[in-house]
Write a structure and sequence with these properties.
heterodimer; A: mainly alpha; B: alpha/beta; Rossmann fold; 2 domains; 4-stranded antiparallel β-sheet; 10 helices; binds adenosine-5'-diphosphate; binds magnesium ion
């Protein structure tokens, strides 16, 4: 391997890692606020790519039906829980939030698709359509078991991932998609070619991380999310509802995952089940950061991306084997190093 | 009925064990009411239940509203605020952010700066440490922050669970002076304390809780001179 090839692989690895970093940051966000290790974020990324591809070819994406179905389920779950706790007078508000709002998004996107002539508009439509999925899943699946152990929540998250893959097959079909490159720009640094798409991926990852940081530091809503993550009881005593924080965290995380889906779609062919490896690698990156540190998980995700890039040069059939095998010692080391953190989070 | 808070025949159990048994208690607007009693008298348990953090039997009304219909956050929005024995600060966040979050439940956040200055005026130490993480504060400063954060919510009724717990005598005096000075804000206070003398000297009305039951209650100055209480809690002074 000479210097140019190494440089090329490094550029490729950083770009891939930046994609994982977006999903990893979303994973950390959800975990710290809700204690759920939300494996299905990879699926959200894949579904965004599939949605965008459908919109690009002026087809109605399966996501429309998926969101509508989830909205109905979420509303029924909420109505059931209101009935059980004799709070049925809150039913109109529940209908607004869990039924009408998501359906309004579905309707608006459905109406706008035939007129979406510009790629940025189509991307925004895809992101808007993907955003309700995770919050609705939270209401249906995780809210009823919110006080369960981290392990229980993880097992349910894995099960949810498989359910989503099944739904993905129903709503999107088995064909893979690849979207148009977002830019044809290309440059090189010291003889190493840098595709514009890679540059765009890295810039987007930096921009969204920065936005999230600003949100946490400079808005009351951002602070309330951190408060929920740091001390749930303390937050509740200030009037901060953990369930509401959870919804906001899922929305923000979905934007991160969605953006990563948009960025990866021109580089890799995405199928209904491509989300698993994206989610798993992002999760591994997040673990390197102890599941609680944003910079740590971004660095971890970049590392996974680089590892994958160099591994695929050595043997592309075995790249995932090499990636995950190399990570075992790191994860072992992390699990010893972060014992105390785990216990704190568990309370 | 014009009481601010009415606790009527409230019982709280841990599993099969009745911890709080049939307790009734009242706080009138503007009053400071003390609940005193030895360690393990389930004072904390009663306060957590009042706040909605533990299930209870019986009835609690706040400004005429039955609290059974409100969750913890709903109670905070109505103006009921607890500074728990465990403080529950946001340890990894700055002093300033803790105070800002104190005002989270308020609809009117426009005079936030003025309120923050008011807290800093009461506790100048917090101003000095405003950018420091709450977890790095000393015990006394933490208690000040917990109090300041609660004041940021502009509560109508403030429940303070052992504000003097584990603090040096000098700081205990400072905390009680602050509590007494809250009268001028018109906020009602339910003050839970093991430091019975200081609590009764600050309060209008006192309740004595022992093993889950109210064993005595009345105007604070009459309790302070009660021979039985003097021998049990107050000591000669
Ligand atoms: N989660 C719990 N489960 C069972 N018993 C508890 C629990 N919390 C407190 N207790 C019991 O309640 C009593 C202490 O109550 P607490 O409200 O803390 O009293 P105080 O505040 O007056 O010191 C103790 O006897 C303790 O055993
Ligand atoms: Mg106590």
């Amino acid at each position: 391997m000479d210097g140019t090839i190494a440089g090329f692989l490094a550029v490729d690895g950083i770009a891939t890692g930046a994609i994982y970093a977006l999903v990893a940051i979303g994973t950390v966000l959800i975990f710290t606020v809700t204690r759920v290790i939300f494996i299905p974020f990879g699926d959200i990324a894949a579904f965004t790519a599939l949605t965008l591809a459908a919109i690009d070819s002026k087809k109605m994406p399966g996501t429309l039906g998926l969101v509508a179905a989830l909205a109905i389920l979420a509303f029924l779950t909420e109505a059931g829980s209101l009935a059980r706790t004799r709070r049925l007078r809150q039913l109109p508000r529940a209908a607004l939030i869990y039924l009408l709002l998501p359906l309004a998004v579905v309707g608006a996107v459905w109406a706008a698709i035939p007129f979406a002539a510009y790629e940025p508009v189509r991307i925004l439509l895809a992101l808007a359509l993907i955003m309700p999925i995770a919050p609705l899943l939270d209401r249906i699946v995780f809210r009823p078991i919110a006080s369960g152990s981290v392990l229980l929540l993880l097992v349910v998250a894995v099960a949810l991932h498989f359910a989503l893959v099944g739904l993905g097959l129903i709503f999107f079909g088995p064909e893979g998609v690849r979207t148009e490159p977002l830019t044809s720009f290309a440059t090189d640094i010291a003889g190493i070619p840098i595709p514009g798409q890679s540059l765009l991926i890295v810039l987007a990852a930096i921009a969204f991380s920065l936005l999230l940081f600003l949100f946490f530091d400079f808005t009351v809503m951002g602070k309330s999310l951190r408060a929920t993550a740091v001390n749930r009881t303390g937050a509740r005593l200030m009037g901060i509802r953990p369930a509401r924080s959870g919804t906001i965290a899922y929305l923000l995380g979905s934007v991160m995952a969605g953006v990563s889906g948009v960025l990866i779609a021109p580089v890799n062919t995405i199928f209904y089940d491509s989300g698993f490896l994206i989610g798993l690698k992002a999760f591994v990156g997040a673990i390197v950061g102890g599941l609680i540190s944003y910079p740590g998980s971004a660095i971890g995700a970049l590392f996974v991306g680089l590892l994958e890039s160099f591994a695929s040069f050595q043997d592309s059939a075995l790249k995932d084997v090499i990636v995950f095998a190399t990570l075992i010692p790191i994860l072992l080391w992390r699990s010893f190093a972060s014992k105390q953190i785990d216990e704190e989070v568990e309370e | 009925m014009s009481a601010m808070l009415t606790i009527e025949n409230v019982s709280v159990s841990y599993g099969k064990v009745d911890a709080v048994r049939d307790v009734s208690l009242e706080v009138q607007p503007g009053q400071i009411v003390s609940v005193i009693g030895p360690n393990g008298a389930v004072k904390t348990t009663l306060m957590l239940a009042t706040m909605g953090l533990l299930p209870l039997r019986g009835r609690i009304t706040f400004e005429g509203t039955d609290l059974a219909d409100l969750d913890v956050e709903g109670r905070v929005e109505r103006g009921l605020c607890l500074v728990p024995e465990t403080r529950e600060l946001f340890a990894e966040m700055s002093v300033r952010d803790n105070l800002i979050l104190g005002a989270y439940s308020r609809r009117d956040r426009h005079d936030l700066q003025a309120d923050m200055h008011d807290v800093y005026r009461r506790f100048p130490r917090l101003r000095e440490r405003s950018t420091q993480a709450a977890g790095t504060l000393s015990g006394g400063e933490r208690q000040m922050l917990a109090l300041g954060r609660a004041l940021m919510a502009k509560p109508k009724l403030l429940i303070l669970d052992e504000p003097s717990l584990g603090l040096a005598p000098l700081i205990v005096r400072e905390i009680f002076t602050t509590i007494a000075s809250l009268r001028e804000l018109g906020v009602s206070i339910l003050l839970v304390e093991q430091n019975a003398r200081a609590a009764l000297e600050t309060a209008d009305v006192g309740y004595v809780l022992e093993t889950g039951e109210v064993v005595q209650s009345g105007p604070a100055e009459s309790l302070i001179n009660d021979p039985r209480l003097i021998s049990a809690y107050l000591g000669s002074h």
